[in-house]
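re: the backbone from monday

yeah here it is again, tokenized this time
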């Protein structure tokens, strides 16, 4: 086993099983026979020199480019820049590799390889023709794809399956920590693939874990995690609930309108549920011919997943069975959802306020001060 110096510390703490030789062409893990360490020049050629016309996305950690490899396969190349002083980005890079090389599931993105070049790190994935759920669902007319009910059902179930696999089938269990619409990629058949494992955490036992750094994306953050840093699988269940409500409603986690001002989707869904007019939440672009009973069930499962009390949220496998009606939720009581609505008490680095709700919280320090829950 050989590590370059910059990787050795990170790898030894982040993974027990992945073995990666960055200097060579091979990497071993449990499911990573095809993992390749690419040369920089290979990726440069594949992406036309990381040209603007090849750029397909931009995230908090860097840009993503479409590329064509010598063997003819089309890939997405994510470029991350590591800050030399803080090594920001390195941990996410290492976490992505160590986590993804051990996993194989049809609803998780496939990592084909990586590359290290100076302060730049590259992650190479299978290219997903339909980009992300955020773009398709919330990108309006621009993307040209209208999601019908069947597609929304298939996407919801696929994400639930991917998460149930991470939470309950993989040993040790994995908490993704950043489930959101832009991290759900869609292939040519609109099959969802959970991506971005840079923030994921591996659980070595069943004990809950207190994180000194809360990470994730506001709007999808479970309240107990934002407040105390208590990390459990239920924080992904919360984010999944928000995502499910987005998929059904076609609305973003927070909306602004003149009548109501800033409105959270979770809050809106709860009000609509309480007013007994649950179908009002269904995206009108779905049309009239959708199964109403199923839509009601999906929204109820969404609300169950965002319950304020983590213990009331179902495990992912259970949520999946509720969606497919293998578990009847008819008599299940739905209580008030939790919501991180007051951002003033969260401290981001030196800042005390938050610029936007969908901002990435990558080094957020938990202040243990009370955030409001929606009531
Ligand atoms: N394998 C892929 N195939 C096609 N498009 C991709 C792929 N990976 C990423 N993208 C596109 O690039 C965008 C940026 O991805 P990235 O994961 O860097 O950031 P993000 O998820 O949008 O935001 P954040 O950094 O907050 O997680 C995605 O939203 C998606 O549109
Ligand atoms: Mg992402």
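seq for it, each position gets an aa:
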């Amino acid at each position: 086993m050989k590590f370059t110096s910059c990787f050795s510390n990170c790898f030894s703490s982040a993974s027990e099983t992945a073995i990666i030789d960055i200097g060579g062409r091979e990497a071993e893990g449990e499911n990573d026979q095809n993992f390749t360490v690419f040369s920089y020049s290979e990726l440069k050629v594949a992406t036309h020199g990381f040209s603007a016309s090849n750029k397909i996305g931009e995230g908090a950690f860097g840009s993503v480019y479409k590329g064509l490899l010598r063997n003819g396969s089309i890939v997405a190349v994510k470029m991350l820049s590591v800050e030399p002083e803080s090594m920001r980005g390195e941990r996410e890079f290492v976490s992505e590799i160590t986590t993804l090389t051990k996993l194989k599931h049809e609803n998780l993105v496939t990592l084909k390889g990586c590359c290290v070049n100076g302060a730049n790190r590259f992650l190479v994935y299978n290219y997903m023709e339909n980009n992300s759920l955020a773009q398709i669902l919330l990108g309006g007319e621009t993307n040209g794809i209208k999601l019908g009910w069947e597609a929304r059902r298939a996407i919801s179930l696929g994400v639930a399956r991917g998460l149930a696999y991470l939470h309950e089938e993989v040993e040790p269990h994995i908490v993704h920590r950043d489930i959101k619409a832009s991290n759900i990629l869609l292939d040519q058949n609109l099959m969802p693939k959970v991506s971005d494992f840079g923030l994921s955490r591996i659980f070595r036992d069943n004990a809950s874990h207190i994180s000194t750094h809360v990470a994730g994306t506001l709007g999808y953050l479970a309240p107990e995690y934002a407040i105390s840093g208590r990390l459990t699988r239920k924080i992904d269940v919360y984010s999944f609930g928000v995502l499910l409500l987005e998929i059904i409603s076609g609305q973003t986690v927070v909306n602004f309108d003149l009548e109501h001002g800033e409105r959270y989707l979770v809050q809106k869904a709860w009000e609509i549920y309480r007013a007994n007019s649950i179908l009002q939440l269904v995206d009108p672009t779905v049309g009239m011919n959708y199964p109403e009973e199923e839509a009601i069930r999906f929204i109820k499962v969404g609300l169950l997943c965002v319950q304020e009390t983590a213990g009331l949220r179902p495990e992912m496998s259970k949520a999946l069975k509720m969606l497919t009606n293998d578990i009847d939720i008819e008599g299940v009581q739905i209580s008030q959802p939790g919501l991180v609505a007051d951002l003033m008490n969260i401290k981001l680095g030196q800042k005390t306020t938050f610029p936007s709700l969908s901002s990435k919280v990558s080094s957020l320090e938990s202040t243990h001060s009370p955030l409001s829950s929606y009531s």
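Residues 1-32, 343-359, 362-375 have pLDDT under 50 and may be disordered. The radius of gyration is 20 Å.
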